[in-house]
Amino acid sequence: MIEVNFSPEDMEEAIRVAKLRNDPKMEAGIKSNLFGRHKMNEATSHLNGVMAEMAAAWLVGSEIDKTSKLGGDKGAPDFWKNGLSYEVKFTGFPNGDFIVPYRDPLKFVADIGIVVNPGNTPTRVKVMKWITREDFLDNYHVRDYGAGDRAAISQDKMTDIEELKYNITR
User: Fold this and answer.
1) Based on CB atoms within 10 Å of each CB, which residue in 24, 62, 116, 148 is the most buried?
2) What is the total count of domains within the chain?
């Protein structure tokens, strides 16, 4: 696990991008598919997701897509680095599953999936584990987390993030 602390400037940028993603959807009446035992509001959900993406991208030396798409990203990867695509998922539960927002696991198209948990303060997140698409497809399960069946994988079947960071940066 690598805990990432956001500076005040980084938090400002994360809030800006989260608002850019959230506000047009709210104005259009589009709600995210929030699931789990603790449903957070839309703005918080987007902020957590942006912070997770930013932290994971920083660890591999990349940047996130900061544009807004009214219909969401449609499963497109969150960022690219060295020809590899990355999908980042935030979970509010310690050791929570890496959950893709669809039942069909083949719709997970990124080369690498990364799961991120909340940090010890609101300006921190914990980048936990990663998995290749192939390993995901070989080991996923399907479960209803409160918004219909989703393909997912538990963190105990994923690899510690330190190994990914080491492999990418050496």
Assistant:
1) 116
2) 1
